[in-house]
Specification:
mainly beta, single chain, disordered N terminus, 331 residues
Amino acid sequence: MTMKARLLFVAVILLVAIAAAAQPLESVLTPNGTLFTLEPVAEQNALALIARNGETRQTIVIPATEGEALDSDAHLLYDRVSDTVFVVWRRASAAGDEIVMTSRDTDGAWSDEYVVAQADGAVSGRAVLRVAMTHAKDENSGAQLSFLHAVWWDQTSAPVARYALLAFEGAQRLSAYTGNLRDIAGSTRVGASEGLTPDDAFPLLALTAATDGVDVVFGALDQPTATRVKLIPKQKGEARIYTPIGRSGGSMPHPRFAATAYSNAQVMVVGTRVVIYNAAADNFSFSVYDRGAWGPVRSLRLDASMTAREVEAALRRAVAADQEQDETIDR
């Protein structure tokens, strides 16, 4: 990787980390009407799960986040099969950066923390954490299984997109897997000397639940294209160990998205289409990848009556409806 590309990647990581603190907090609504959100607890240097139901509001400090380490980029998932809330976040300490997970069951008991990715002296930082939850049946017993998927960037001498797969039956963790996305997808690295990476390329990393697995899109600053792959959990023989099988979804060029958008750039996958977007203080910009090409960057003005979250939801609905209409015409 060239020095210019390395510096660009570091700048992106720093800006994304700064923006993450300003983004709306994640929330999940359970079938019994309880709304869970995440909030920082400054006086305890911890994260808390906020539970709202009717007129009741309860602040539940997450035990695994208490301490001197810096906890950030937290994500919330709710598993309806086991009625369990999962929290996945990044922990930075003197030992290095880790990806950590804990869960809270229907009785309110917290699990022991599980370190998905341990601190590594060769990894100077981790960023752009994305998570998703999917389900499947055990091939032998027919039991309902839950899968927690996570992707993130490892910053080493060259940035590495990583993937983790955790399998659960109820509250019991059956297996855990971590791997290099490039190896799983079978994508080929292109030497930086070939100079094929555009100066304003955004290192794509997106994860979304799909039928029987997850859809992942990732790029790298030393590749001229981004890679799309579907990852499906597969049981290894009769052992209750699950690893991903990658099915190629092809490649796509990096989006030509302005460097000023790096501070809050995000990616969503909607069917066969990929959307990169940026929600700034008063402006929402986006570009859609469809049929082999990125569309023009379009912008919308934000104000009190139209927030970034509302535009994001409207954009997702519009892209999904547009794709559905195209599929109907193509039939």
